[in-house]
Specification:
Helices cover about 40% and strands about 25% of the residues. By secondary structure, it is of the alpha/beta class. It has 2 domains: about 160 residues, P-loop containing nucleotide triphosphate hydrolases (Rossmann fold, 3-Layer(aba) Sandwich), CATH 3.40.50.300; about 70 residues, no CATH class. The strands form 2 sheets. Strands 6-7-8-3-9-10 form a 6-stranded mixed β-sheet, sandwiched between helices. Helix 3 packs parallel to helix 7. The longest helix has 17 residues. It is globular, with a radius of gyration of 18 Å.
Length: about 250
């Protein structure tokens, strides 16, 4: 399989405060790639830099094309989509109107007639959104808001879907549903770059993983290999394993 995304020597941050220090990362088309690491490691900074929300230096190739100079809107038009940690929904708008806003790329590409088909596919994936399609987004539960944020991104038919902490603040059963959805999306051919603090769940669903610490890649490898790595077990999986053993 070909690489959809190749990042080399990426530097990014906020003003004069550099957060990422020469990061290298590759995302193979059709796979789930996860980035795990502690708070403050630079995981969200990475996604925001890739999406063009933050300025960056380095080489960013997407589908064989240099993306460094493209604005956020142009990256969206190329098939990149980001679901931010904040979810960034329009609380005073209905579920369905939030979803329709996600079809912006398709309308711009002249595929507006495909919007209803995409909407139907999102409702098949998230049946609760269909049930609540007329409900205001601001009245949804945390899990439903996360579903809506992912559904809105999918309305653009992205080739690269970037998810920033999709399990944050959600109940365990909802987290399970979210990760089942990620696995289902991989089966459709979407390439997923998953930033996640729940290392165990992330490595279970991913094909390849990176451990980001202090703005640099500390470890990388297949998700299965990382899950067996003593350092990863001790630092990111140990507490969860002990908790499960005690239950």
């Amino acid at each position: 399989m070909a690489d959809l995304l190749r990042v080399r020597n990426l530097h990014a941050g906020y003003g004069k405060a550099e957060v990422l220090h020469g990061l290298n990362l590759t995302a193979t088309a059709g796979q789930v790639i996860t980035v795990i690491g502690p708070n403050g490691a630079g995981k969200s900074t990475l996604l925001n830099a890739l999406m063009g929300v933050l300025p960056s230096k380095g080489t960013l190739d997407y589908d064989g094309r240099a993306m460094n100079l493209l604005a956020l809107e142009e990256r969206v038009m190329q098939g990149m989509a980001l679901v931010p940690e904040t979810r960034a929904l329009f609380a005073s708008m209905s579920v369905e109107d939030n979803l329709l806003l996600g079809a912006y790329r398709q309308v711009r590409l002249g595929n507006g007639q495909d919007t209803q088909k995409a909407l139907g596919e999102v409702y098949m994936l998230f049946t609760r959104l269909r049930e609540r399609r007329k409900q205001l987004a601001g009245t949804l539960s945390g899990g439903e808001r996360q579903m809506l944020a992912v559904g809105r991104a999918l309305m653009s038919r992205p080739r690269l879907l970037m998810l920033d902490e999709p399990s944050l603040g959600l109940a365990p059963l909802v987290v399970r549903d979210i990760f089942a959805t990620i696995a289902a999306l991989r089966a459709t051919g979407v390439t997923i770059l998953l930033v996640e603090q729940n290392a165990r769940a992330a490595l279970e669903v991913a094909d390849y993983g990176y451990v980001l610490e202090m703005g640099e890649i500390a470890l990388e490898g297949s998700a299965a290999d990382l899950a067996r790595d003593p350092r990863v077990i001790e630092t990111y999986l140990g507490a969860a394993r002990k908790k499960g053993a005690a239950a």
